[in-house]
């Protein structure tokens, strides 16, 4: 029982259809976002379609806020489906229909074993130190033997001998002995379908040709093939999908990614960390896939270059510092008005977005996220009296405050408030006094921003404007006196 693929992995035969199928029990996490990305890219690369399915059969844990969070995260990354999403729970009747078709054809059976009987057999297997396998006496029973009015489940009839091979697009050839496959449940005793059945039926009905997902689903693939091949024998037209099982993402320490590594929802990277969508897109792309030494890869390049066969077999390591550095690159490339609109809500009080946009070229030079941009821009909108940080206050000695008085006097006579004119005036003043420019710039920065770090001092003066700059300097200055070093 070997597995081929009923579809052309290169996309030259049957049109490629991929899908991303999250369970709405929480946020869209990083691993899920990368799975969605790889599915989206493979569909785009091959000229196929990329679909979404919400696997909401766990009614107790599936929530509307979680569904909204998933759609919100996908939309932010530009990974929404090509068609409206399919909701699995709404298709329960269709899932049950397939289970009954398998039952009638002899590829599944009614099992009347009770939970107590199963528990006793499981305990016996543990006591005898052997793996537990379902070995139901109902597997080959005839309808005449079925008890009336007793609950039952519908189990798949797994083969007992031979082996199954999957030629995985990422992992390569994988073979499992059929004896390892159990007679898993298709329909519960209340008639509801299991996840294993629902996934297969939905993939078939949606026309999915390529199942690209985490490698924690490899074992599921062998089980799901039992349903696919059973239905192909029943009615035909159920080809095996091409499987691509992508390694999971680990933390920098090599352990499975968890919250302590930064395994947060995509919304946290956007809202709390101030990451741009194009940066996260690029970073997730490079987690386990590469194109030579290229680190900065545009969306268009990614579509052109991506091939699922080039995804590595080993786990990738999530590196938050690397993501921040990449984000810094995309901040520097981003449109200034767009950045201003993103940064403004992160700032206290009302801000002038036009001024914020004008400041972006000098603010984004060293920033790695939107929060750093907001922090760096805070001085522009601070109200007098300005709050002075301790380190900045230490620069405002009597001597430097007297210098500020002289600076205020010199700049007060300057009508041309341009970068060039201000630089010329302050450099001339420093030269006259035999001072390095830093001797003027450091206390001036403290007076203008309340901080020891800021954009270039001449940029600060221009952005604040003549009136506000002179008012801030005057607030910290002592009357000008002649100072000679």
What does this structure look like?
With 485 residues, this protein is mainly alpha-helical. The protein has a domain at 382-485: Arc Repressor Mutant, subunit A. Helices cover 45% and strands 10% of the residues. The chain contains 19 helices and twelve strands. It has helices at residues 30-46, 64-77, 92-104, 115-127, 195-205, 218-235, 266-271, 277-285, 299-305, 320-333, 336-343, 353-363, 370-381, 390-395, 398-412, 419-432, 437-449, 457-464, 466-476, and strands at 17-20, 49-54, 86-87, 108-111, 153-156, 163-168, 172-177, 185-187, 210-214, 242-246, 249-250, 316-317. The strands form five sheets. The protein has a three-stranded parallel sheet with strand order 1-2-3, with helices on one face. A three-stranded antiparallel sheet has the order 4-5-8. A two-stranded antiparallel sheet has the order 6-7. Helix 12 crosses helix 13 (370-381). The longest helix is centred in the middle third of the chain and has 18 residues, at 218-235. The chain is elongated. The relative contact order is 0.10.
Give a topology summary.
Blueprint: E1 17-20, H1 30-46, E2 49-54, H2 64-77, E3 86-87, H3 92-104, E4 108-111, H4 115-127, E5 153-156, E6 163-168, E7 172-177, E8 185-187, H5 195-205, E9 210-214, H6 218-235, E10 242-246, E11 249-250, H7 266-271, H8 277-285, H9 299-305, E12 316-317, H10 320-333, H11 336-343, H12 353-363, H13 370-381, H14 390-395, H15 398-412, H16 419-432, H17 437-449, H18 457-464, H19 466-476
Parallel strand pairs: 1-2, 2-3, 9-10, 11-12
Antiparallel strand pairs: 4-5, 5-8, 6-7
Helix pairs in contact: 1-9, 3-5, 5-6, 8-10, 11-12, 12-13, 15-17, 15-19, 16-18, 18-19
């Amino acid at each position: 029982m070997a597995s081929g693929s009923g579809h052309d992995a290169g996309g030259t035969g049957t049109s490629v259809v991929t899908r991303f199928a999250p369970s709405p029990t929480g946020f869209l996490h990083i691993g899920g976002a990368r799975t969605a990305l790889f599915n989206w890219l493979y569909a785009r690369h091959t000229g196929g379609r990329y679909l979404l399915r919400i696997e909401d059969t766990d009614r107790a844990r599936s929530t509307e806020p979680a569904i909204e969070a998933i759609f919100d995260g996908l939309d932010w990354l530009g990974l929404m489906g090509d068609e409206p999403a399919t909701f699995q729970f709404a298709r329960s009747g269709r899932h049950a229909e397939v289970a009954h078709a398998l039952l009638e054809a002899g590829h599944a059976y009614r099992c009347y074993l009770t939970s107590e009987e199963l528990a006793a057999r499981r305990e016996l297997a543990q006591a005898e130190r052997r793996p537990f396998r379902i070995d139901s006496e109902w597997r080959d029973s005839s309808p005449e033997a079925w008890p009336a009015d007793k609950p039952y489940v519908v189990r798949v009839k797994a083969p007992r001998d031979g082996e199954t091979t999957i030629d995985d697009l990422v992992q390569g050839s994988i073979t499992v002995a059929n004896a390892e496959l159990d007679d898993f449940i298709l329909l519960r005793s209340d008639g509801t379908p299991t996840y294993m059945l629902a996934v297969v039926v939905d993939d078939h009905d949606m026309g999915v040709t390529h199942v690209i997902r985490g490698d924690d689903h490899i074992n599921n693939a062998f089980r799901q093939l039992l349903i696919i091949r059973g239905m192909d024998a029943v009615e035909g037209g159920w080809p095996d999908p091409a499987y691509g099982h992508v390694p999971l993402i680990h933390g920098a320490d090599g352990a499975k990614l968890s919250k302590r590594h930064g395994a947060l929802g995509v919304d946290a990277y956007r809202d709390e960390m101030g990451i741009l969508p194009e940066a996260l897109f690029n970073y997730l792309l490079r987690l386990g896939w590469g194109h030579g030494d290229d680190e900065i890869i545009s969306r268009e390049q990614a579509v052109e270059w991506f091939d699922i066969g080039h995804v590595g077999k080993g786990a990738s390591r999530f590196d938050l510092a690397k993501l921040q550095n990449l984000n810094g690159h995309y901040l520097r490339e981003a449109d200034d008005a767009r950045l201003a609109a993103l940064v403004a809500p992160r700032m206290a009080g009302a801000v002038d977005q036009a001024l914020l946009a004008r400041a972006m070229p000098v603010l984004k030079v060293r920033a790695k996220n939107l929060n750093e941009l907001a922090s760096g821009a805070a001085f522009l909108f601070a109200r007098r009296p300005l709050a002075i940080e301790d380190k900045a206050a230490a620069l405002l000695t009597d001597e430097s405050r007297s210098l500020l008085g002289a600076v205020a006097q010199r700049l007060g006579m300057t009508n041309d408030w341009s970068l060039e004119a201000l630089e010329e005036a302050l450099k001339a003043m420093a030269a006259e006094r035999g001072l390095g420019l830093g001797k003027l710039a450091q206390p001036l920065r403290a007076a203008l921003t309340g901080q020891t770090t800021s954009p270039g001092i001449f940029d600060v003066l221009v952005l604040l404007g003549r009136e506000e700059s002179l008012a801030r300097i005057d607030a910290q200055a002592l009357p000008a006196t002649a100072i000679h070093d």
